[in-house]
What we know:
Chain A folds into two domains: 36-178 and 322-336, Orthogonal Bundle (Cytochrome Bc1 Complex, Chain D, domain 2); 183-318, Cytochrome c-like domain (Cytochrome Bc1 Complex, Chain D, domain 2, Orthogonal Bundle), CATH 1.10.760. Chain A is built from 15 helices and two strands. By secondary structure, chain A is mainly α. Chain B is an alpha+beta fold. Chain B has three helices and seven strands, in the order E-H-E-E-E-E-H-E-H-E.
Amino acid sequence: xxxxxxxxxFLLITAFTTRESNFSYxxxxxxxxxxxxxxxxxxxxxxxxxxxxxxxxxxxxxxISCESCHSPYSAFTHIDHALSHGIYDSIGTRNSxxxxxxxxxxxxxxxxxxNNLDMQALAPISHPLEMGSSIKKVVIKLQASKKxxxxxxxxxxxxxxxxxxxxxxxxxxxxxxxxxxxxxxKVMSGDLQFTTQEKNGYALFQKNCSSCHREPLFTxxxxxxxxxxxxxxxxxKGRMHITLDSTDxxxxxxxxxxxxxxxxxxxxxxxxxxxxxxMNHYTSxxxxxxxxxxELKEKIKLTENEKVDLISFxxxxxxxxxxxxxxxxxxxxxxxxxxKD
Amino acid sequence: xxxxxxxxIKTFRSISYNSIQFYLGIDSLTNVSGALGGELDPxxxxxxxxxxxxINFKMEGQVSRRKEPLKEFQIxxxxxxxPFYSLQEVQLNVHDENINLELNLDPFLQSLDFSNVHxxxxxxxxxxxxxxxxxxxxxxxxxx
Lengths: 341, 144
């Protein structure tokens, strides 16, 4: 009997503790894919990650921070820039993705090159057209900084920065970037109602877009060729560069549509400035090819009015609370209370 | 990261060994487990950055064919996903307690086509082939 009680107790305890502590999200959402047991969210680690995110120390010449291409006010992308910018005015080859709801992603980057959020920062830190540094160089700079020795001590009880601690702290901050307070979310929870136009747009969305841009995250996190004409300058074949599998040619990560109002320009190379251009692409711009998404083989038909309705629905995915969340912006308050270098 | 090409492994005197077994590289589960510390910390330079995955074997240098000028080469072997999973298991019989384990690089270098290829830096069929060649060329030698 005692044995059974202890087993029951054990089960009860684990049932409560395995829940991601300090990480909250709507109860109707799926379970996150990120393994929080390996990196449990703690305030001081989030703080450290936030300071790192805004610090150009991550780049070779201390000029570019993560925030340079991922501004909180545009849902963490580089607003109005088709291609990402790096050190010495270099221009990358792809549009910087908006950062939100990253705990649910299985792979990262437009081509899924990165398999875990922890490893994501290595790519921009090392890329010669982005930060042009290396995690080794970054860690050496951090180790020499009084400010960081204090922040690492507060986060890890050990003042010596390492690659592992640095990457995990960045993950901690990135994981807190959850966008779930849009008008759409408030309609779903019964607190608000769609206008007639938004309601029409939602029906059109569910009919034409939702198989790939699946609710509630507005992406299924898969890769697809959405029929864009090849850009002859960039010659970007997407996922195929990673898998070397020709059936992946021109396939790119399906992005979330949340906060789409703030994340222009659109597509992996930022070729469309306006949502109306995106609508026109899906109705009359699709290029047929072997790897085209099966959902797009048959033409999507939308009248001009329907396009407007659909856009009005997409604008209900804007989350002002997320974009102006003071916990996500430049960490003035943390930096001012930390040692100076 | 060894500071030289020699790596010393201590064994227990009271136990006799008849076989030695190890992996050349990092298994697929470890490769998808996020940031790791110690020897697996990516600051050691054995992790790809443009694409996730550990580099299992790295050889860099300069090569000159006939009278051509020296050319840089970089061979980074890795890959944790099929069809380019490059992890190799090595198993060797041992008869003495004090042994040297040697890796003969000659077959590996002979199989590189330095007239055409100077860089292998991503998972591929060739990377798997080269990893297999490395794994086959370990030899146990009595330490004199």
